[in-house]
Amino acid sequence: MLIVRVSDGKFYSTAMVTIMVKEAMDSGLHFTQNFYSTSISENSTNITKIAVVNAVGNRLNEPLKYSILNPGNKFKIKSTSGVIQTTGIPFDREEQELYELVVEASRELDHLRVARVVVRVYIEDINDNAPVFVGLPYYAAVQVDAEPGTLIYRVTAIDKDKGDNGEVSYLLKEDYGHFEIDRGSGSVTLKEAFNSDLSNIEYLVVILAKDGGNPSLSASVELPITIVNKAMPVFDKPFYTASVNEDVEMHMPILSINATSPEGQGIIYIIVDGDPYNQFNIDFDTGVLSVISPLDYEINSLFKLMVRASDALTGARAEVTVDLIVNDVNDNPPVFDQSAYNATLSEASLIGTPVLQVVATDADSDNNKIVQYQIVQDTFNSTDYFHIDSSSGLILTARMLDHELIQQCSLKVRATDNGFPPLSSEVLVSISITDMNDNPPVFNQLIYESYVSELAPRGHFVTCVQASDADSSDFDRLEYSILSGNDRTSFIMDSKSGVITLSNHRKQRMEPMYSLNVSVSDGLFTSTAQVHIQILGANLYSPVFSQSIYVAEVRENAAPGTKVIHVKATDGDSGVYGQISYSIINDFAKDRFLIDANGQILTTERLDRENPLESDIDIFLRALDGGGRTTFCTVRVIVVDENDNAPKFMTVEYRASVKADVGKGYLVTQVQAVDPDDGANSRITYSLYSEASVSVADLLEIDPDNGWMVTKGSFNQLKNTVLSFFVKAVDGGIPVKHSLIPVYIHVLPPETILPSFSQPQYSFTVAEDTLIGSTIDILHVLPNQGALYSTVNGELSANNKDGVFIIEKDTGLIKLDKRLDHEINSAFHFKVAATIQLDKVDIVLTVDVEVKVLDVNDNKPVFEAASYDAVIMEGMPIGTKLMQVKAVDADSSANGQVTYTLAVESELHKITEAFTIDSNSGWISTLKDLDHEKDSAFTFAVVASDLGEALSLSSTTLVSVTVTDINDNAPVFEHEVYRGSVKESDPPGEVVAVLSTWDEDTSDVNRQVSYHITGEKQLALNIQFPLPDGDIAVKTDTVGF
């Protein structure tokens, strides 16, 4: 944990740094060296290979990835080879002499197991820095009587290079006779004594400093050496420097000069040079220098004064240089090069056109002389029309000019410098706007909205555009044209009136919207406007299903809301006429399914495949577009079986008789079960099942497929007993379902004579209208031994579960006990048992009985919907299919065949002229072109009759037909001529006439009316758009016709 402190010299702040040290994972990798060392010369811009690192410890053919953790911008490494290169950015040894790169090697598939090594890169020095003198400026003085070898001054130069390149040696540029310099230390000493009469003489000695590089670099410096004697005053500085602002107050002291006399006498100071205008004064006694006359940086920014100090007693004197730097202050405002500016500009000038350039200069320096320009806004100029570049002073137009609105613009331009506080000046700019023929024709609307029916014929009026021109001479010269948007030349435009009509080239199918760019020209100028033409779509196309019959599957018992199928009808129309709605026609399907607006069919209740009505369901669909066109399709829904039924036996029990000495392989009896499910779910396997002490499996075996039981072992030990057990029926569904049925085997003594029925099985036919109590037939056994008869019924109604048939106990007479219905059960299968009583065990015989029920015509046809609603668009061609009605008759053969007819109680002639029905299919179609304006709806009945031979039965349904409106009637003015009047003094908006129309069409969209003035002098009038009742008002725009 570290505490880090930062300080600005007065204040400080601290922060805590926590360093987490984690245990390094042993990667198994290591570099071939503990560290690498290399070098490269500075200033090189070549991309150079400087080192190759290599890590070992990886598996055979396992690639390693190399990377530099701190590459900066000067190094890079090849990730697969470990070659370290420079990037071409030059090095500077004087900036950084050593780089320590951390190179990491990692496995390709395990980036956490790595090895690292340090590569040290040394930067080799080259001689790229010359010696630099320090401690400047230099100035020295030496007594006239100084001895040779006296140290006069020591100069020092440094060199940033290294080694010989940084070793500095000193020498004098010329042989000055009296002076010499030490080559290594830079000490300047007196080589030869001066003459005693020398005084106040200055030598300018030039010293060279050279480094030891090859080639060698050098620098030079001047060392002024003044020869003084002991009587001369001595200044406390070899020279003086001071700075002063140009706005310094008068008599303000700016510098103090001090000199001392070797004899201790007083010193007198005077300025002897550098002050031609006497702007400075030095106190002759104190040496204080002050300003006595105003300074001006813009006239003189530097003064080099020569000040003399004289000994008051001996008159000995010495002189020193005083450099005075004058600092600039912002005391000069910008000055324009003209007192006023004038320009002339055409009103046709484009935005951004240069007008003129104003120029102002400032005598100050640096930021104080930088000038910014702006247009001053006030109530007397037109600043919105112009813009000035703040840096250059160039004035440009900012918007289009119009001589008719403004003829003269006066701008006040301000120039402001960048000083503090800023100074500014202003100048007036006058701009005259010259006139030209600049009045183009103008449309009275920029955008025209219009509409036209898709059914409108070629040459039909669409709209009329109108324009005006301020130049009255151009009124009769206006020409209109379509510039763009009319690629297929669907429209033409009258060049004089501006009326747009449908062209002879228009296509039958038009786009829903056209945007025409139209122009009007007076011969010189052109104006444009947009005309938006909405095509009121006609219902040209009927919906079309992709298939006439769809087949879908849905699992029985599926939850309500299960998706069945998605059907889609397409319509070539656009807009409302292309919007399709779906509906289910037949009531049976409507009770079990629904269809949403997108054509998705869903279930509304659970379906039962074992219900004969629900095993396969036909859904009759209608697709209706927004204009009354329809199409139909059928969706056949196959209900997929689910194993939801256990097998059911055809009788409630099975009994049979065998002799005790029966041999192996004797057919005892056959058990039969049925499963109403489908496929594997209905495949039944039979097996023996018993909990008794006697092993049934040792005595009998059962065929698992057909249920026949065959003897297998000896029954001797069971003589005079009844062997009872169960037979198990298992279906093939998942999960499986099963049922058990009891089986009783009567084991008789070997000497017993077994009788049998007169037939191995019985089959009868009976009409479904047979009266209750009627005799079907008589059964008996041979030899007749006084048997007692009974029916053995099953678990299903078809197995006589409800006791429809009975048998007389003693006689074997089969009778009908309940009413028959061929449509519920067309056949019955059950068993009849004959029991002959013996002393110990009765003889029981069984035989299969089949009764077929013949159909009679007792059911009338039933329509799939209680009523039908049909929609058709007026004007559809003869033979258009309107609706299919369907009726189903539960009877069979001819009794179930249905034919259809129209049944009209009133207006028979009108209905039969308009519609017909196919007697076999039930399709209703048109016989003529329907007209909504004459008959908007029809209602009639359809009769469905069967073909019963003795008696024909029928039923009736109601069909309602709605005829939708199309725009097939033009609006009509209520009067052929309207007359109006207007006074010349009437203002715009005065009503001249009120027009009204009527239209035989009934829908709002087809009765929508737009009004246009298309005749001459149309510019004098303008239409006020319709009031709610369809009237229009006209207002005057101009007076005079």
Automatic annotation (TrEMBL):
Write down the membrane topology. Single-pass membrane protein
One of the GO biological process terms: cell migration
Q: Where is the Cadherin domain?
A: 32-133, 134-235, 236-336, 337-443, 444-545, 546-649, 650-757, 758-863, 864-973
Q: What is its main location?
A: membrane
The UniProt entry, under CDD domains, shows: Cadherin_repeat (cd11304)
PROSITE patterns noted in UniProt: CADHERIN_1, CADHERIN_2
Output a single Gene Ontology CC term carried by this record: catenin complex
Task: Tell me the SMART domains matching this sequence.
Answer: CA
The GO terms this record gives for MF are:
beta-catenin binding; cadherin binding; calcium ion binding
* Protein's cellular compartments: Membrane
Task: Identify the Pfam families for this entry.
Answer: Cadherin
UniProt keywords (A-Z) are:
Calcium, Cell adhesion, Disulfide bond, EGF-like domain, Glycoprotein, Membrane, Repeat, Signal, Transmembrane, Transmembrane helix
Which residues lie in coiled coils?
A: none
Q: Which domain of life is it from?
A: Eukaryota
- What protein is this chain from? Cadherin domain-containing protein
Species annotation:
Junco hyemalis (Dark-eyed junco)
- Lineage, opening ranks: Eukaryota, Metazoa, Chordata, Craniata, Vertebrata
